[in-house]
Amino acid sequence: MAGALRPVVLLMLLASVLFVTAGILDGVYPGGAAWDISDIASASYIFAILNTIVAILVARGSERSLALRMGLSLFFVFERPASAFLFGAKTAPSIGVHLATALVELVILVSAVRVWRLGHSMEGSDVDQLFALSGSSGEAQTQPQEPARPAVGALPVRSAWLIAVTTLLLAATLVADGLASGFVPGGREWGLSGESSGWLVYLFAVVTLTVATRAVHGSRIALRLLTALGLIFFIERAFSPFALKVIDPIVLALHVLAAFVALAVALASASAIRNSSGRGDGRVETLEAA
User: Fold this and answer.
1) Measuring CA to CA, which residue among 289, 1, 260, 279 is closest to residue 159?
2) Residue 196 and residue 183: Cα distance in Å, rounded?
3) Contacts of 78 (CB under 8 A, 6+ apart)
4) Angle 57-61-63 from CA coordinates, rounded to 5°
5) 3-state secondary structure 55-71
6) CA 20 to 30 Å from 25, out of 9, 80, 116, 157?
7) Contact indicator for 160, 268 with CB cutoff of 8 Å
8) Do 21 and 97 meet the contact criterion of CB atoms below 8 Å apart?
9) Residue 35 zone, left/alpha/beta (φ > 0; ψ -120 to 50; rest)
10) CA neighbours closer than 13 Å in the CB half-sphere of residue 157
11) How far does CA 44 lie from the centroid of its chain?
12) What is the pLDDT along the chain (290 residues), one digit of tens a residue?
């Protein structure tokens, strides 16, 4: 059961790293432009410390801390973009890190809510196992146990991690493409057609991550949708440079990288569907070890 909580804790630690990175990029370091405790940019370090403490408490099995982290995630989803665009002038890398943090916080929120709902749908002893990363106690392990049954609605750990890593890489590449194309505050015009529609990559990244949060937990519908999205983004990334007449070598390289990563996402999710047997509830069962 610890597998349901472990990805949430890992994402919390990733968020702490991103908070610290944002503070450094905003000049909050000795001799930096914002090296002042009264500067709002220094709040990134406070957020990093608070997030790390909560992550440790969640890892130790605190259900209340998980509820607190859901509230923090909801706050950060709105605070990070607002901090990037409304509070002081920031560089493109800083804005990118702020937006990436917001995306990670959105994934944490969705995953934490799922674990919370899963925990409250179980019996008391099962809840203790769900919120314990270290597994059962030594006393419980000495007692005879029934053979473990495959969990319905879960993917094998390897497949889940493959989908998660490739999807995160795809989202990061899409965001980097938007930044490199100049879609930042004070940059080029944002629109819905032609060259001004390049900012849509941010929306693509959010949609992909949202679907992936369900796909890694075995939802067959989400896996099929993620497969379709991967193929769509592969085609779009491969041919959009010709339609938009992109000549910037960095942007071209990001398009090519995103196309290959999108194809990897599609293959990973399609493989998870093909190598699993679905049940009537529309979910993918865990594969038994060979």
Assistant:
1) 289
2) 9
3) none
4) 85
5) HHHHHCCCHHHHHHHHH
6) 9
7) no
8) yes
9) beta
10) 8
11) 19
12) 445 677 788 888 888 888 888 888 888 777 766 666 556 777 888 888 988 998 888 888 777 778 888 888 888 888 888 888 877 777 888 888 888 888 888 888 888 888 877 776 665 545 545 555 544 444 444 444 444 444 445 678 888 888 989 999 998 998 888 888 888 767 778 777 667 777 888 888 888 888 888 888 888 888 888 899 889 888 888 887 776 677 778 888 888 898 999 999 999 988 888 766 444 444 434 333 33
CB 5 within 8 A of CB 115: yes
The contacts of residue 140 (CB under 8 Å, 6+ apart) are none
- Residue 187: name the closest of 252, 91, 268, 270 by CA: 91
What secondary structure letter does DSSP report for 146? P
Sign of CA dihedral 82, 84, 86, 92: negative
226 in Cβ contact with 211 (< 8 Å) = yes
**Which residue, chain included where needed, has tokens 């392990």?**
141
Global pTM reads 0.49
**Burial bucket for residue 117 (CB in 10 Å: 0-12, 13-18, 19+):** exposed
Spatial neighbors of 152 by CB under 8 A, at least 6 apart, are: 218, 279, 281, 283, 285, 286
3-state class (DSSP) for residue 181: coil
Q: Name the 3-class secondary structure at 43.
A: helix
Residues with Cβ within 8 Å of residue 229, at least 6 apart in sequence: 207, 208, 211, 262, 265, 266
Tokens of 170: 């795809």
Q: Which residues, listed in sequence order, are joined to residue 29 by a DSSP beta bridge?
A: none
Q: What is the rounded CA–CA span in Å between residue 108 and residue 213?
A: 9
Residue 261 host element (H or E): helix 249-274
